Amino acid sequence: MNKSATMGTLLEMRGVTRTFQVSQGLFSKSRTLQAVDGVDLDVKRGEVLGIVGESGCGKSTLAKMLLGLLPPSSGTIRLEGQDVSGLPRKELARRVQPVFQDPYSSLNPRRTLSSIVSLPLEVQGVRSDERRERSIAMLDKVGLPRRFADNYPSQLSGGQRQRVAIARALVSNPEIVVCDEPTSALDVSVQSQILNLLMELRRELGLTYVFISHNLAVVEHIATRVAVMYLGRMVEQTTTAELFRAPRHPYTEVLLASVLTPEPGLGVPDAGMSAIAPDPLNPPPGCRFHPRCPKAFSPCTTQDPRLVADGEAAVACHLYTQPHTAAA
Hints:
- The structure is a single chain.
- The protein is of the alpha/beta class.
- Helix content is about 30%, strand content about 25%.
- It folds into 2 domains: about 10-20 and about 35-105 and about 165-245, P-loop containing nucleotide triphosphate hydrolases (Rossmann fold, 3-Layer(aba) Sandwich), CATH 3.40.50.300; about 260-328, no CATH class.
- The strands form 2 sheets. It has an 8-stranded mixed beta sheet with strand order 6-7-8-3-9-10-12-11, sandwiched between helices. The chain has a 4-stranded antiparallel beta sheet with strand order 2-1-4-5, with helices on one face.
- Helix 6 (about 160-170) runs parallel beside helix 7 (about 190-205).
């Protein structure tokens, strides 16, 4: 089951956009929401790519497009050079698998654990006897011995349910696992167990993870590289160590400054950002972050910054491409 851990590009997105029509009421015309807008992103083989940003920034929509659950409105998604729109659905499902946020709703309560885990194999047409043995072996690998095989989800804790979800994702030997907030519904004491399990499985099976989260502490712990989203756009991409050492985009700085500290008496941190978020149905001109940005200056209000690469990093900010002397 081991795969090569070479760091070539496994999956790439170019100019990917996803729009939705949002109803404004019975007598009003629907409006267009750009949930993901012109995203360029590479996922390298063997890495853990963390995708972070506020709720509503487009992270989960991006995940659904990577999984083939939503087609992009425009742009291309390629898996090892092949446009995923031309891949058979079974082939894409075999190579890219999800672990969803809530293990209480993502597992069928009417099926046994071995039946749940074997479902991807059933779709692939694997014989029933082989499906059962492979599902039991995978349950054991995630820490649920054979005696759990005929149990039902209602007999498990939240952490155990998420182990089942991980086993289901891995049983068909995927190349990429898309983890959409896989620990946010779990107790803090269980989160570290699941994260350590994911890291152990990545080393053992040579997996590539796309790890979506709003929890920066979790991302710092597990990710090798981070992409930061704001209002449907990518604003910064770099290695995890560099992002937490010296963030470049003002929005990334604000995200890091807003992390709550466990120290008593310090209260809620002041990140220096306006609390009023823009309307995603009517995003501001220029840089979408400029109405909340403490470092905004004149070009930010009218010119849309491009994501510009600089070595391993890339940032979409006029601070690095435009001369400036004072904030707007």
